[in-house]
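User: Before I run my own analysis I want an independent prediction to cross-check against. Here's the chain; please return only the structure tokens and, at the end, one sentence I can use as a sanity check.
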Amino acid sequence: MPKAKTLDAKGYRKFGALDKWAYAAGDFGCNMSFALKSYLMVYWTQYMGMTESLYALLLVVVQVWDAVNDPLIGAMIDSDRRKYKRGKFLAYIFVGSIGLMVAGAATFLPFPNAPRWAKAALYVGGYVFWDAFYTIANVPYCSMLPLITEDAGERAQLSSFRTLGAMIGGMGAGVIIPMVIYGSDNNIRGNLMWIIALGMGLLGFGAFQFMIRATCIRVDLDVRCNEESQKFDMLVAIKNFAKNRPAVGATMGACAMFISQYGASAAVSVLFQSYFKNARISGLMSIFAMLPMFLFMPFIAKIVRKYGKKEAAAFGSMFSVFAYILMLVLPITPDSKGMLMYVACNLINGLGMGVYTCVSYSMMADAIDYNEWKFGVRDEGTIYAIHSFFRKLAQGVFPSIGLMVAAGLGYVATLGSNQTPEVALKMRYLVAVMYLIAALIQFISIKFVFNLDKKTLAQMTEELNARANKE
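Assistant: Structure tokens:
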């Protein structure tokens, strides 16, 4: 009898802390690999000696493959009708987690004296190997959120804890790695990167195993959509995505976030290496943009239930626009006073991004429900994979554009921290401009494209539940 009290009306374990921490562990595992991507540009150009133009070209090549790879694997997962003991999503995640143990290290093999063609082959081969296993783990992980719970507030909590897991993984990598790999001369010690990547892969594997064992799937797809009787059609799924405004809006917002995170990566590296003259604290500074999120996490379910995800995220995104306008116009000088202004701008941005980062993944879960509501099929794997396609395309295109713009402004990667003061100043403004563009795109995508406001979301959930009860 006492055990029955822990079960819900359907006989599943009641949603609680274990669900949230298990889902957080999944994104921690993903970010033990994903966080390493922010060091690829510095590693391959400054340590491995690859030219800016060659790196930019190869980055676009691997990211286009990366982007195409996601819908292919997403379609494979959606069309897989086999029965798995713990469900197909967790089965695919397990396979991906095994490969990710070593795949990250494959992207940082240290052969700086290798010929140019060999370096290109090492970069492309290592990245493709890493990407294959990352996609196998990440696409089902992201697609799984709407199957853990149907409650809007609980989904927001899962999204918040997913972001928390990503932040713990990302902050650990962002703070510790720069302190280890940058020497006193602010130049990179690239020979350490593969060892760091291997250690992070082992930590990620452990996190994935905890998530797999602790996750409870509560939404029965056979009841919700009767998917077993449907024939999967990739072209129809893509057309549905294009007509799915919540999915398009959430994808635009995510792409905007990657403009700031990765598009400005070259400029941010120079900002701390050559402008502030302190590369070791570059990761520490980025934490200030994340800290305000912790203010919202305990209250995110109440905020969503009272104001709605779209409404709260759109309001918060205005703070980000304001923060980066300030970063552009304030006299951020290459001293402690200027660095404090830079930190203050990131804190203001953090206030705006706090709500959005807590609910962004939950918005994609709602977009999957919207697909079922409007078109009668869920297609979780394909919808998230197409979403990931555009995110990864942004991860490849915008860093390449940012790197080429930086090179056009005089940046020379092989000089490391020894850029001219004029180039360092230009990078300071390039960072602010790219951040501001990203914030504006994010505001537009949430406010005007994503169309699931609080009222519409409630109507959709009610109608979907009514359909399920008729089955």
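Sanity check: Residues 336-375 form the longest helix (40 residues).
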